[in-house]
Design brief:
By secondary structure, this protein is an alpha/beta fold. The protein folds into three domains: about 5-85, Nucleic acid-binding proteins (OB fold (Dihydrolipoamide Acetyltransferase, E2P), Beta Barrel); about 90-250, 3-Layer(aba) Sandwich (Rossmann fold); about 260-360, Orthogonal Bundle (Ribonucleotide Reductase Protein R1, domain 1). It is built from ten helices and 13 strands. The chain has helices at about 10-15, 50-55, 125-135, 155-165, 180-185, 205-215, 265-270, 270-275, 295-300, 305-360, and strands at about 25-30, 35-40, 45-50, 70-75, 80-85, 90-95, 105-110, 110-120, 140-145, 170-175, 195-200, 240, 245-250. Strand 2 and strand 3 form a beta hairpin. The N and C termini lie far apart (about 75 Å). Bound molecules: guanosine-5'-triphosphate, magnesium ion (MG) and zinc ion. Zinc ion binds near residues 287, 294 and 295.
Length: about 350
């Protein structure tokens, strides 16, 4: 197995060079189980475990599917120990669904990020806007895939609607079920390049992988089960090498997408609104009832959808709230460290005094 076939390139090679001499090997995480990892190395597939040191790392440093890791291989048992995660070339993150203010990594080291949506009754343009805010900053090249075109009466209108909010991102309509548009998608699959399929549950991500694998590699939701909404068919992320040599990561569908990042992300995904507001008469225009407000005018003339503007404000509020939570946590952490430091100084002074007393006697 050549490492280049599973996505190794100069970027990872440079970061790996400091580990070279210690008999370490680079490997890629292809699956994460509850208690171990499945990795792919130059000697093939191995089961791997985190080293003691890695077990205590912060969650964000622990490897996920798509990561390149530094391993030592125990040849007798086809087992490997993971010692480090190499820096990530690209990362897609959302806010974790729990109450904690922390990021959840969705996909890493992706060349092309494919957002899959279904052209069925669940189609929701506002939801696509949220995904776009998440993916603009990932560093990966985005593609929007409108699947289930067989269920839609006006595919072209839907496509135009999506294109109007996805400035410059290619939008491809397909039907994985009736094999429509799959050749156009196939043009984006290149040997040694990594693609990830992300999107809501039930849009057909695993069906697309199965199409390119030519067999039922991934379990797909049965049509009879479709009424059980909210149930995810894919529960694990998995890295798969397609017969044409492209590398695909299937991800479990997302039920709710909470944003991570800062307000800049919104400026990118809503660049139309940002350029409109630059034309408002007052530079601090709140776009409410000020005279000469370009946003109000655009909404009145129909150039800008009011719902899109509301969605922009909502995302901005969400990310501002997140920033202030992060600041608070940062201060809390600083206080904690400050207190710890003060206690250390106090203990040192006490120790010194005690010893001085002893020497004076
Ligand atoms: N009509 C139609 N159904 C499709 C198409 N593609 C997939 N499906 C169906 O959609 C359902 C869900 O497909 P999956 O591939 O399991 O969806 P998924 O995105 O992987 O879902 P999760 O794993 O839960 O995230 C299945 O019943 C598929 O047969 C399509 O192009 N048209
Ligand atoms: Mg799936
Ligand atoms: Zn304005």
């Amino acid at each position: 197995m050549l490492l280049q076939h599973i996505g190794f390139n100069d970027f990872f090679d440079t970061h790996f060079s400091s580990y070279q001499e210690k008999n370490f090997k680079p490997a890629r995480v292809i699956r994460q189980n509850k208690t171990n990892y499945i990795i792919m190395s130059e000697v093939g597939e191995l089961t791997a475990q985190l080293s003691g040191k890695m077990l205590h790392e912060e969650n964000s440093n622990k490897p996920v599917v798509g990561d390149w890791v530094v391993v030592s291989i125990i040849t007798d048992d086809s087992l490997a120990i993971i010692h480090a995660t190499l820096p990530r070339k690209t990362t897609v993150e959302r806010k974790s669904a729990g109450i904690k203010t922390e990021a959840q990594v969705i996909a890493v080291n992706i060349d092309k990020l494919i957002l899959v949506v279904g052209l069925d009754d669940n189609f929701n343009i506002r939801r696509i806007e949220r995904y776009l805010t998440m993916i603009y900053d990932s560093g990966a090249e985005p593609i929007i895939l409108l699947n289930k075109s067989d269920l839609c009466d006006d595919v072209e209108a839907r496509k135009a609607e999506v294109e109007s909010i996805a400035f410059g991102i290619p939008v491809i309509t397909i039907s994985a079920l009736i094999n429509f548009g799959m050749d156009e998608l196939a043009e984006h699959l290149q040997e040694g390049k990594t693609l990830a399929l992300i999107g809501p549950s039930g849009v057909g991500k695993s069906t697309i992988i199965n199409h390119f694998m030519n067999y039922e590699k991934m379990v797909v939701k049965k049509v009879s089960d479709e009424k059980h909404q909210g149930r995810h068919t894919t529960t694990h992320r998995e890295l798969i090498i397609l017969p044409n040599g492209a590398i695909m990561i299937d991800t479990p569908g997302m039920r709710e997408l909470q944003l991570w990042g800062d307000e800049d992300n919104v400026s990118k995904s809503f660049s139309d609104i940002e350029s409109l507001s630059a034309m408002c008469k007052f530079h601090d225009c709140k776009h409410q009832s000020e005279p000469g407000c370009a946003i109000t005018e655009a909404i009145e003339s129909g150039e800008l959808d009011k719902k899109r503007f509301d969605s922009y404000l909502k995302q901005l509020r969400e990310l501002k709230h997140l920033s202030s939570r992060k600041d608070q946590l940062g201060r809390h952490e600083m206080n904690k460290r400050g207190k710890k430091f003060a206690a250390q100084i106090k203990a040192a002074v006490k120790f010194k005094k005690k010893n001085n007393l002893k020497t004076h006697k």
